[in-house]
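Lecture notes, part 5. Sequence design as translation. It can be helpful to think of inverse folding as translation between two languages: the language of shapes and the language of residues. The source text, in structure tokens, appears below.
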């Protein structure tokens, strides 16, 4: 009887150990699967955004290290998914995951910062200035009201986005910038002298020179009290 009880205890002990091993393995499976899923969710949008910026040669060489780290992590994710399909136990080996998922949030933060700064620089170079004081003056003319509102709407839409997330979104905002430029370039009304319109369009896009500041233009901007809002070069 004692031998039988002892054997039962031995079997129960083995069963308990097997259950514990199963529980530990299950926890590891779940942890690793979550790591992979979270990494995909985190890294895939960055890959798409980086591709859009690279396609336009916007990101400089200083970002090469970051983009290589993203490419390396993406390659590991693809490999991990393939390995797991072929051999689920592969996911249990700690050496297979060593350092691959360390600081992924830090990497995302660095790339977000890089893309945000790159987009702002690109956007500011491409967009015409939409000085609110100038728009306020132009909006007083009936013929300009619709165009001024369109300019304001486009300006707000373009500046609202942190950075384009993919090529399609980048194309959309490039089109919005083009529409904004066109709105400035098509300003025309008999209520404004042509010289004044030329002055406003050129100044809004890139600043202007003294040769465009004719007496007629000077009188007009002084009359409307907006002289301080123009950037004029001596050359």
């Amino acid at each position: 009887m004692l031998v039988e009880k002892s054997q039962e205890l031995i079997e129960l002990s083995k069963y308990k150990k097997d259950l514990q091993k199963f529980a530990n393995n299950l926890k590891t499976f779940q942890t690793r699967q979550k790591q992979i899923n979270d990494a995909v969710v985190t890294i895939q949008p960055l890959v798409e955004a980086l591709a859009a910026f690279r396609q336009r040669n916007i990101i400089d060489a200083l970002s090469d290290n970051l983009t290589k780290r993203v490419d390396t992590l993406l390659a590991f994710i693809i490999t991990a998914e393939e390995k797991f399909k072929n051999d689920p136990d592969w996911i249990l080996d700690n050496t297979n995951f060593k350092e691959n998922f360390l600081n992924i949030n830090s990497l995302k933060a660095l790339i977000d910062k890089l893309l945000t700064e790159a987009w702002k620089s690109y956007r500011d170079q491409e967009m015409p200035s939409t000085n609110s004081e100038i728009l306020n003056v132009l909006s007083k003319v009936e013929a300009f009201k619709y165009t001024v509102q369109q300019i304001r709407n486009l300006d707000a839409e373009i500046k609202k986005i942190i950075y384009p997330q993919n090529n399609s979104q980048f194309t959309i905002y490039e089109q919005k910038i083009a529409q904004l430029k066109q709105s400035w370039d098509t300003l025309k009304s008999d209520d404004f002298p042509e010289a004044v319109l030329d002055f406003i369009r050129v100044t809004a896009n890139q600043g202007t020179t003294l040769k465009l500041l004719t007496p007629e233009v000077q009188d007009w901007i002084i009359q409307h009290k907006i002289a301080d809002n123009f950037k004029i070069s001596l050359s």
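The translated text above is only one of many valid answers, since several sequences can fold into similar shapes. The longest strand covers residues 208-209.
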